Amino acid sequence: MDKNNIKDIISLLDAGYSREEIAEMLNNRAPAEQPEEIPTEEPEKTPEPAGEPKDEKLDEYAEELKRLTDEVKTLKAQLQKKNIQQTEITPPKQETASDILARVINPNYGKFDNNGGKIK
Q1: By three-state DSSP, how is residue 118 classified?
Q2: Tens digit of pLDDT for each residue in 69-96?
Q3: Helices 19-27 & 3-15 angle (0-180, nearest 10)
Q4: Residues 119 and 112: beta-carbon distance below 8 Å
């Protein structure tokens, strides 16, 4: 489709034609107006080398992938276990409205300095 066709379609839409009517008009155009198909050249297929080395590489990749998958599963399980333990040890503190207001007024409220003393 060239720019003129697109402009024509937009003009038809502005004139009130529906999408179906425009599609029917495009399908019924004269064959001389239809764009020529450009023949495509298919790339030549190169013969594959002997299958034996490829199979060995595939086996190596499959083993490596399985090993990595197992490691990821192990790490995931460890992280989940640690997160569960962390929530059981220290439950989240419920903040009161006065705590939140105090932190808005003084951003250092409830924090400690480098010596372990509470900042006022």
Answers
A1: strand
A2: 999 999 999 999 998 888 777 766 788 8
A3: 140
A4: yes
What is 1-33 written as a DSSP string? --HHHHHHHHHHHHHT--HHHHHHHHHTS-TTT
The dihedral region occupied by 16, where left means phi > 0, alpha psi between -120 and 50, and beta the remainder, is left
Contact between residue 107 and residue 113 where contact means Cβ atoms under 8 Å apart: no
Say how many residues make up the chain: 120
Q: What's the chain's Rg over C-alpha atoms?
A: 35
Phi, psi values for residue 71, rounded to 5°: -65, -40
| 82 contacts 74 by C-beta, under 8 angstroms | no
Q: Tell me what pLDDT residue 100 has.
A: 86
20 vs 13: CA distance, rounded Å: 11
Contact 9, 22 (CB under 8 A): yes
